[in-house]
Amino acid sequence: MIVEGFKLIFAPEEEAGAQVIRGAIEDSVPVIRQLWPFRPPRRAKVVVWTDWMDGYRQGLPRFQLLLLPLFRKRIVGYGDRLWKLVGGITLRSQPPAVLVKPPRVLADADIRIGEKLFVHLDDINDRVRSITCHELAHAYATVRPLPAWLNEGIAMLTVDRLFGFDTVKPQTMELLGAVTAPVRSYRALPRLTNSELVKFYARGYWLTRYLHEQHPEELRRILSQRFAIGVTDRRLAKIVGVQKSELWEKFDGIVWDHYRG
Ligand SMILES: [Zn+2]
């Protein structure tokens, strides 16, 4: 089944969950296209995710599937912790694939990180909708190499727009205040502790939100650049109005002052 350009893949017994995800794709794609200057990923998939490795098998293109045994150990090595923590994941393969847990699987998730970051959504279907939207924004963003914090900020802001209210808790702003650059690479994430992960996401959200609300045209411009050069500290420093060398020393404070000052 093709939904908004994504091939939706699910086992027959997951029909009910697949319909929730299908509706979320239909609602999210127009929001993503309106907010961000990314062209749609071609031949991308969305997999209704019920098993850690099966999702990878269904999502990866044939060529990368051949390499899966090489990575299998690393993926499985993340173990149960990551499987329980995430409601969805985007495989940055070519074409990309979004894996999303259906409601019945998401119900077993470890929400300790999520509940520190996000406002509580009573309806589990809304949580699936929010995860689907978040991951679809990542799938669109795979056409650009973005630092991880900005990529997460973009995904979280997209969910805010889909729901029409702030889905990130306002008190996460208290986690601003670092004076070093946030994690740029996803490879570093599985090694972070839960509280470091919460800080990473919170910071990504608030810094990106500030850029999006205060400097929308400049943000669009750097997101439109085709190459890795698009989002550099030099360009960010220029947007924020500081010297490149002091960007990470000052950026959190500027955002804090803007929202709390
Ligand atoms: Zn994400």
Question: What would you say this structure looks like, in words?
Answer:
The chain has 261 residues and is of the alpha/beta class. The protein has helices at residues 15-35, 52-59, 62-85, 103-106, 114-117, 124-141, 148-163, 194-214, 216-224, 233-240, 247-260, and strands at residues 2-3, 6-9, 45-48, 88-91, 97-100. The protein has two domains: 1-143, no CATH class; 146-261. The protein has eleven helices and five strands. It is globular and about 55 Å long. α8 (194-214) packs across α9 (216-224). It starts with a strand and ends with a helix. The structure holds zinc ion.
Shape: globular
Count of alpha and pi helical runs: 11
The largest pleated sheet is described as: 5 strands, mixed
> What strand order characterises the main sheet?
1-2-3-5-4
- Gyration radius, in Å: 18 Å
